[in-house]
From TrEMBL:
It comes from the Eukaryota. Belongs to the DEAD box helicase family. DEAH subfamily. One of its GO terms (molecular function) is RNA binding. Residues 1-20 are annotated as: Disordered. Keywords: ATP-binding, Helicase, Hydrolase, Nucleotide-binding. It catalyses: ATP + H2O = ADP + phosphate + H(+). This is RNA helicase. The keyword Ribosomal protein does not apply.
Length: 687
C-alpha cells in the first residue's frame, strides 16, 4: 500500500475552491506550532481578528448581520467573545450561539471558557437537551443546540434574556435552525416597529463558512427595510489545507479509508487523522480493519489510538476524542458528519473524506422515515477539509476523483423538507403561529407533511377542530421529548403508573443502556447478564428492571460493569428522569406506582408505543415480532424494509386475527445481537 496511488499528491492538488483560498496569500504559512503561542496571541492571529471593528460596527447598526468566512477563521469561538468584550452581555443579557450538533456546542464552549479563563458553566456555558452547564446569573456566553434555543422560544417568545443570537453553521439548514430563523424573522419584521422600541438591543447574526449569503440577505430584507440586514465576508484562513483525490472511484470507501489512514501513519510525521464515514456500522468496520492491522505495525512507527465519534455516544464518550494522544501514539478518529462543522480537534492534520453522508428522508404518505446514503454536498466537503488546517497545515484526502468533486451539488435539501413535521408543528402552534401558511419559512415543508402532521395532532386531541392547541397539546409541546413519549407521560394518570412510566420515558431517551461486546466469551457473559433483567412482558419492562436494580444497588459503576450496563447511560437516565419529573409535577400528573401491576403499565404503553418486541438475528432480513401487551402473546413474521439510521430499521409485518385484522404496521426497531428480543422505539400504525 503506498500513497503513490494518489493522483496529484505533489503538484497542484485541490479544487478551485481550495486553491483559491490558498492563493489568497493571507494564509499563515510559516507559523510555528499553534500551541507555541499563548491563548491570547492565538486569538489575535486568527483571520477574524482583522475584521473585529467592522463586525462590531455592523452588529451595532443592523438588526441582522450575515457573516461568511473560511472554516477555522474564528467565527464560532471569537464572535461571541468580541460581543462580550463590547458590552453586549451587560445588564444581565446573554449572548447565544447555536449549533446544529451537541458535540460542537459542548466542545466549543469548553474552548471559549479556557480562552476567557473561566470554568465551564460560569461566564461561558452550554445547553444541550437534558444537560445544562450554564448558570442563570453568571453565564454571559451560552453555546446551545438550535433545538434548545427554539424550545426556549416556547417559554419566552421574545427571547428577552438574549442581546445577540448567533445562528452558526446556518448552511446546514437543520430543522431547528430553519425554525429559529423563521421565528426570528418575525422578530426582525417587528424590530422595525414595536419590539425594537421595547428591546433595542436584540441582534441576530447568521454565520457559516459556506453560506449562500445573498439568499439569506433577501430572506431577511423581504418585507422589512433593506437597512435591516448586511453581509460581512471574512477573508483568510489560518493554515493551508492541501487536497488530494483518488484517480478512480473506490468500490469500498470504508476499507480504502482504513488503508489510507494506515499509509499516512507509515509515511507521514506527526498529526492525528480524522476519517469521515456515514454511520456507526461503517465506523465499527473501519476501526476493526485498522485493529486487525495493528499487529503488523513496523517498529518505530507511531502506535495508533483508535476512536469513534458518532451521535450514539454519550457526551463524555464524544469528548474523549479531544483528549491529546499519549506520547508515541497517533489518534485515528473515525466519525460521522457530527465532526464536520465548528469542531476543532487539536492535532488533526489529516482528514480522510469518504464523500458520502447518511441523510434522513421522510415519506408523509407512508409515514416512513428512512436513511439514505448520498454524496456529500460541496458545503460539507469544504467543511470536512476544514477540520485539517486548524492548528497547523494539513492534508485532506478525498476518496473520490476530482471530477466527482466538481459535480457535487452545493447543498443538500434542508431538513425541514424531509422530516416528520408533527413535533415542529405542535411547537409552532404553541408559539401562537396558528396560520402556518403565513409563516415565513426559509424553505417551506411539503404540504403533505404539514397536512399529515395536523391530522395526527387533531386525532390525538392536541389540536382542536378550529386549529388551535388544546390544553394537553400546549403541555405536550413544552415537554422536552418526542410527542409520543410525552403522550405516554400524560396517560399515566389514567392508568395510575406515573412512577414507572417516568422511568421508562427516561430510559428510552438514552441510547445503549446495555454494553454487549460483539461475539466472543465476553459477549456471551454480557448477554447472560442482560437476560437477568429481561421481562417476559416486553422490553420496556426490561428497561424498568434495569433502572430499578441500578437504584437499588446504589448507582454504582462497578455494579454496572458486572451487569453489562453502561454506568454513563444509566446515570444519564437518572438525570433525565429527574428533569421529566419536574414537568410531571408542573402539569399536576400524579407520580404513583402501579405496584407491580404490569397489565396497567402495558395498557398505558400500548396507547402510544406499539406493543412489540422483536426476535431477531443481527443483519438478518426477517424475524419474529411478539405482541406482549395483547391479552395473549402472538407472533408474526416481519421483514426489514429500510434502515432509518445506523442500527435502526423499519420493518413491516401483517397479522390477521380478531384484534388486528389485516393491520399493516410500521415498526422502527433497533437490532441488537444474537436473536435477542429488543424494544421497539417509535411506532406508527396504518390501516
Ligand atoms: N479546542 C481548540 N484547540 C486549539 N485551537 C482551537 C480550538 N478551538 C478553536 N481553536 C482555534 O481557533 C480557530 C477558530 O475556530 P472557530 O471554531 O472559531 O472557527 P470557525 O470560523 O467558526 O470555523 P468553522 O466554520 O469551521 O466552524 C481554529 O482554527 C483553531 O486555530
Amino acid at each position: 500500500m503506498s500513497l503513490t496511488f494518489w493522483k496529484p499528491g505533489t503538484a497542484g492538488p485541490g479544487s478551485t475552491l481550495d486553491r483559491a483560498t490558498e492563493s489568497e496569500g493571507n494564509v499563515v504559512q510559516s507559523a510555528p506550532n499553534h500551541s507555541a503561542y499563548s491563548i491570547q496571541a492565538q486569538r489575535e492571529r486568527l483571520p477574524i481578528a482583522k475584521h473585529r471593528e467592522k463586525l462590531m460596527y455592523c452588529v451595532e447598526m443592523y438588526g441582522v448581520t450575515i457573516v461568511v468566512g473560511q472554516t477555522g477563521c474564528g467565527k464560532t469561538t471569537q464572535l461571541p467573545q468580541y460581543l462580550f468584550e463590547c458590552g453586549w452581555a451587560a445588564d444581565g443579557h446573554v449572548i447565544a450561539c447555536t449549533q446544529p450538533r451537541r458535540v460542537a456546542a459542548t466542545s466549543v464552549a469548553g474552548r471559549v471558557a479556557s480562552e476567557i479563563g473561566c470554568s465551564l458553566g460560569e461566564e461561558v456555558g452550554y445547553t444541550i437537551r437534558f444537560e445544562d452547564v450554564s448558570d442563570k446569573e453568571r453565564t454571559r456566553i451560552r453555546y446551545m443546540t438550535d433545538g434548545m434555543l427554539f424550545r426556549e422560544t416556547l417559554l419566552d417568545p421574545l427571547l428577552s434574556r438574549y442581546s445577540v443570537i448567533m445562528i452558526d453553521e446556518a448552511h446546514e439548514r437543520s430543522l431547528y435552525t430553519d425554525l429559529l430563523l423563521g421565528v426570528l424573522k418575525k422578530h426582525v419584521n417587528l424590530l422595525c416597529s414595536a419590539i425594537r422600541r421595547k428591546r433595542p438591543s436584540l441582534r441576530l447574526i447568521v454565520s457559516s463558512a459556506t453560506l449562500d449569503a445573498t439568499s439569506f440577505l433577501e430572506y431577511f430584507t423581504s418585507g422589512t427595510s433593506p437597512e435591516e440586514a448586511t453581509v460581512v465576508s471574512l477573508e483568510g484562513r489560518m493554515y493551508p489545507v492541501e487536497v488530494a483525490y483518488l484517480q478512480e472511484p473506490t468500490p469500498d470507501y470504508v476499507r480504502k479509508a482504513a488503508e489510507v489512514a494506515w499509509n499516512i501513519n507509515l509515511e507521514h510525521g506527526r498529526g492525528d487523522i480524522l476519517i469521515f464515514l456515514t454511520g456507526r456500522e461503517e465506523i465499527d468496520r473501519c476501526l476493526e480493519e485498522l485493529a486487525e492491522l495493528l499487529p503488523t505495525l513496523p517498529r518505530g512507527a507511531s502506535r495508533l489510538t483508535l476512536l469513534a465519534l458518532h451521535a450514539g455516544l454519550t457526551t463524555e464518550e464524544q469528548l474523549r476524542v479531544f483528549e491529546p494522544a499519549e506520547q508515541g501514539f497517533r489518534k485515528v478518529i473515525v466519525a460521522t458528519n457530527i465532526a464536520e462543522a465548528s469542531v476543532t480537534i487539536d492535532g488533526v492534520k489529516f482528514v480522510i473524506d469518504s464523500g458520502f453522508v447518511k441523510i434522513r428522508t421522510y415519506n408523509p404518505t407512508t409515514f416512513l422515515a428512512s436513511l439514505s446514503t448520498v454524496p456529500v454536498s460541496l458545503a460539507s466537503a469544504t467543511q470536512r477539509a476544514g477540520r485539517a488546517g486548524r492548528t497547523s497545515s494539513g492534508i485532506c484526502y478525498r476518496l473520490y476523483p476530482a471530477s466527482t468533486f466538481a459535480s457535487l451539488s452545493r447543498t443538500i435539501p434542508p431538513e425541514i423538507t424531509r422530516t416528520d413535521m408533527t413535533t415542529p408543528i405542535l411547537q409552532l402552534k404553541s408559539l401562537g403561529i396558528d396560520d402556518l401558511m403565513k409563516f415565513e419559512w426559509v424553505s417551506a415543508p411539503p404540504a403533505e407533511s404539514v397536512l399529515r402532521a395536523l391530522e395526527g395532532l387533531v386525532s390525538a386531541g392536541m389540536i382542536s377542530d378550529n386549529g388551535r392547541l388544546t390544553v394537553v397539546g400546549e403541555q405536550v409541546a413544552e415537554c422536552p421529548v418526542e410527542v409520543g413519549v410525552a403522550r405516554m407521560l400524560f396517560s399515566s394518570k389514567e392508568f395510575k403508573c406515573g412512577e414507572e412510566i417516568l422511568t421508562i420515558a427516561a430510559m428510552t431517551s438514552v441510547q445503549d443502556i446495555f454494553v454487549i461486546p460483539d461475539g466472543g466469551a465476553q459477549g456471551a457473559i454480557a448477554e447472560l447478564e442482560r437476560r437477568k433483567f429481561t421481562a417476559e412482558e416486553g422490553d420496556h419492562l426490561t428497561l424498568l428492571n434495569a433502572y430499578n436494580a441500578f437504584k437499588r444497588y446504589g448507582q454504582s459503576s462497578s455494579w454496572c460493569k458486572s451487569h453489562a450496563l453502561s454506568f454513563r447511560a444509566m446515570s444519564r437516565a437518572v438525570s433525565i428522569r429527574s428533569q421529566l419529573k419536574k414537568y410531571m409535577v408542573r402539569f399536576g400528573l400524579p407520580i404513583e406506582s402501579c405496584e407491580g401491576d404490569a397489565k396497567r403499565l402495558r395498557q398505558c404503553l400500548i396507547l402510544h408505543v406499539h406493543p412489540t418486541s422483536v426476535l431477531f438475528t443481527r443483519k438478518a432480513r426477517t424475524g419474529w415480532v411478539i405482541f406482549h401487551e395483547l391479552e395473549e402473546t402472538k407472533k408474526t413474521q416481519i421483514r426489514i424494509l429500510t434502515e432509518i439510521e445506523p442500527d435502526w430499521y423499519v420493518f413491516k409485518y401483517s397479522i390477521a386475527n380478531d384484534d388486528f385484522h389485516s393491520f399493516r404496521i410500521q415498526l422502527q426497531c433497533r437490532l441488537l445481537d444474537h436473536g435477542h428480543k429488543y424494544q421497539s422505539r417509535h411506532n406508527g400504525a396504518t390501516r
